[in-house]
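can u do me a favor
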């Protein structure tokens, strides 16, 4: 036991909910009109304050207002596995099988999130050639995601405990372990946008503005009550090591008394050598006990930035074309840490958390007076941001999205629409991903209706869902235990679900 060295734990919480597809930190669903059609980059409407701001110049003179709320429901699922090389045929080959994993050594970790209230407001005031706009939305994140059983990255080190104990004669014929683990991540990026449009001529308009971003993240987590089967009994490892340390304290006290009473120098020297050995063992036990102690994290992060935005819109016969560019926004996020037993979220430390730049372009064509079709394209500059640890360098390419939608006026008062979006992330070999923060490529389908409830008021309703790819990542990980190196082959398979329902009200004054 005197050579026992355990392990350190990592608790890095970065599991924010993204309520819709987009760049790594971007929500593109900021109006219900978008949710029911998607391809809004080349359309003219009050929702264009986000998707096509220059096109808002072609709304009628006067004041235009849009009030929206969305409810989003999401899950995140990771199937994590680990195999220890050289231990084939032993109970330790696939450690997760010792605590709920299947026969392949794969264990499921699931996070759930719901956002019942995700509001946005857009307002525009047009005067002939000039127009002025303001908008508020949650432009990134949007809620809380909770993993009530922790994550595989938390548990991998803990799963090695039965092997470590067996190497020092403290194992069992039926090795097992358990751990209480919890992780909650909450992220909001509040965006307040202002800008102005100018109609150069009856068919061409431009836009210039900015968005003020306020970022707030909250991370809570713990790893508690680590237990293992020791000598046939399920023991709390922290308490067990503490008891062994107390036993050694008593033995050292008795040896000190014997050494003081000894009259023979050789006998006294033997006692002192035993005291020295037991003292060293006790120090190692106390060190190991510290490593398996309950650990907690409670950290809030905040930051702010300003994003310049420019746009252009052009009308030609039955066509309308729109484009906009949002500049990459550099931002530092500061820790406000109440508890950090991980040593990874020091209070007052700033980390980079840039918001990616975005270029969009789209077009709408009027097939019939009551039927319109639209397409759009998004290009996010994710690789040009600064992320914690330089993670952006692990991306293969920038995020791209392809959108299409169709809109049909059943009557002057009822309008229906549907849309499709494909999101491709540049994940490469998956090194960018971890179970603590991941995205996968996806496609989304949405539909909805606009119902005119008054001469100047329209209610929009929409529903969409997102189908995410399964992305499997394989990698090797090394653990140092008791002076030995253990090589492990690890896998993580990621996927998500996302469903959103929204209602909005557009009013023209």
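np, heres the sequence
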């Amino acid at each position: 036991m005197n050579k026992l060295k355990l392990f350190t734990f990592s608790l890095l919480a970065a599991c924010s909910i993204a309520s819709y597809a987009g760049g790594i930190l971007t929500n593109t669903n900021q109006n219900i009109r978008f949710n029911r059609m998607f391809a809004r980059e080349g359309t003219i409407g009050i929702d264009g304050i986000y998707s096509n701001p220059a096109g808002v110049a072609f709304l009628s003179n006067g004041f235009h207002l849009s009030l929206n709320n969305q409810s989003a429901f999401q899950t995140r699922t990771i199937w994590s596995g680990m195999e220890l090389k050289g231990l084939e045929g032993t109970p330790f080959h696939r450690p997760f099988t010792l605590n709920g994993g299947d026969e392949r050594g794969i264990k499921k970790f699931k996070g759930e999130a719901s956002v019942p209230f995700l509001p946005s407001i857009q307002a525009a005031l047009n005067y002939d050639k000039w127009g002025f706009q303001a908008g508020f939305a949650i432009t990134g994140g949007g809620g809380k995601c909770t993993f009530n059983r922790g994550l595989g990255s938390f548990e991998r080190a803990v799963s090695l405990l039965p092997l470590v104990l067996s190497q020092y004669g403290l194992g069992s014929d039926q090795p097992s372990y358990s751990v209480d683990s919890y992780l909650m991540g909450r992220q909001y990026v509040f965006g307040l946008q202002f800008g102005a449009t100018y109609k150069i001529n009856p068919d061409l308009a431009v836009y210039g503005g900015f968005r003020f971003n306020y970022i707030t993240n909250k991370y809570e987590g713990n790893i508690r009550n680590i237990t293992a089967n020791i000598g046939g009994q399920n023991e709390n490892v922290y308490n067990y090591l503490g008891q062994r340390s107390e036993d050694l304290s008593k033995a050292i006290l008795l040896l000190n008394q014997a050494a003081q009473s000894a009259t023979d120098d050789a006998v006294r020297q033997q006692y002192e050598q035993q005291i020295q050995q037991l003292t060293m063992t006790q120090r190692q036990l106390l060190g190991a006990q510290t490593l398996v102690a309950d650990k907690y994290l409670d950290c809030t992060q905040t930051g702010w930035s300003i994003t310049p935005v420019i746009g252009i819109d052009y009308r030609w016969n039955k066509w309308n074309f729109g484009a906009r560019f949002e500049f990459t926004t550099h931002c530092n996020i500061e820790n406000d840490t109440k508890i950090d037993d991980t040593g990874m979220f020091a209070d007052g430390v700033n980390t980079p958390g840039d918001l990616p730049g975005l270029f969009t372009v789209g077009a709408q064509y009027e097939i019939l007076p009551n039927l319109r079709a639209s397409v759009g394209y998004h290009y996010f500059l994710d690789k040009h941001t600064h992320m914690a640890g330089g993670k952006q360098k692990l991306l293969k390419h920038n995020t791209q999205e392809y959108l299409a939608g169709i809109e049909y006026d059943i009557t002057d008062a009822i309008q229906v629409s549907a849309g499709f979006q494909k999101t491709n992330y540049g994940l490469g070999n998956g090194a960018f991903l971890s179970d603590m923060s991941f995205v996968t490529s996806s496609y989304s389908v949405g539909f909805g209706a606009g119902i005119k409830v008054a001469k100047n008021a329209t209610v929009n309703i929409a529903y969409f869902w997102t189908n995410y790819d399964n992305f499997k990542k394989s990698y090797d990980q090394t653990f140092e235990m008791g002076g030995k190196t253990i090589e492990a082959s690890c896998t993580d398979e990621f996927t998500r679900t996302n469903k959103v329902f929204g209602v909005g009200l557009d009013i023209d004054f």
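The CA atoms of residues 9 and 154 lie 7 Å apart. hope that helps!!
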